[in-house]
TrEMBL record:
The keyword Signal appears for this protein: yes
PA14 domain location: 1-120
Name of protein: PA14 domain-containing protein
Annotated keywords: Signal
The keyword Signal is assigned to this record: yes
Length: 258
């Protein structure tokens, strides 16, 4: 993963690349954006997108990695702090013909040229986060428990043919449906109340739903109140990246007359 979009793949579309930037050192940074067609680069003073400001833009178009065609392509020097997380966003509008989008930087001791590497980025999760557990987990514990209650009407549980657990997660989890373990990923066995994930999961994978077939556990559904419980696991209590976003999907296959 890097701060770069696919090239030459479509016409008449727009792109928004958004996420978080992690500066590796204290100091002054300068950013460049290149694109076809026009684009804008926005950076916040913190994690809040509401505090973003436009720092560079392409008024027309450039070749891939053509960082110096327009004066407006580069930002002023911006003071950033190591260990802090900053919201960053690139917008691009493509008409027809070739298309590209990339962002690079100059940072203390390093002159830019290649797109910003994935080790300094993480995906935007603002629209996914309902509960912020940083204060309860960071530096305290690598595990968290959550319960999601839902209700099925009498006999409704017998109507479903398929059951799927969809998970966005970083780094691991164990899932239970009405007290029965139904799925686990990147989790130790046996799992303890304060377990850590088996390994660090690539953060770019957390933005994509992983689908797990739970058809074998259809009988675990019950009329009345049911509980989906998730034991979320971070790879370390000192790791600031953590996400658990479950979706339980029950469906019935239907034959449509032709």
């Amino acid at each position: 993963m890097s701060f770069e979009a696919p090239t030459n793949w479509e016409d008449n579309y727009g792109t928004r690349m958004q996420g978080f930037l992690y500066p590796p050192a204290n100091g002054s940074y300068r950013f460049w954006i290149a694109s076809d067609d026009n684009s804008e680069l926005w950076l916040s003073t913190d994690v809040n997108p509401a505090n973003k400001s436009k720092i560079a833009y392409v008024p027309d178009w450039t070749e891939p990695y053509e960082w110096s065609k327009f004066v407006s392509q580069h930002s002023d020097w911006i003071a950033l702090a190591a260990g802090q997380k900053y919201y960053i966003e690139a917008l691009q509008k493509e008409g027809t013909g070739d298309d590209n989008l990339a962002v690079t930087w100059e940072r203390p001791g390093i002159v830019g040229g290649d797109p910003i590497e994935g080790q300094y980025l993480s995906p935007w999760t603002g629209s996914w986060v309902a509960t912020d557990v940083e204060g309860d987990m960071l530096g305290v514990n690598s595990s968290v428990w959550m319960r999601i209650e839902f209700v099925l009407e009498e006999g409704q549980s017998d109507l479903f043919d398929t059951l799927t657990l969809r998970m966005r997660y970083e780094d691991g989890f164990v899932a239970y449906l009405n007290g029965v373990e139904v799925a686990s990923c990147n989790a130790p066995s046996p799992v303890q109340w304060d377990s850590t994930a088996d390994s660090k999961r690539p953060i770019e994978n957390a933005s994509v739903f992983e689908e797990i077939n739970l058809n074998a556990f259809l009988g675990t559904l019950q009329s009345g109140k049911s509980v989906l419980a998730i034991h979320g696991l971070n790879d370390s209590k000192h790791d600031g990246d953590f996400l658990i976003l479950p979706e339980l999907v029950a469906a019935r296959n239907r034959v449509v007359p032709q």
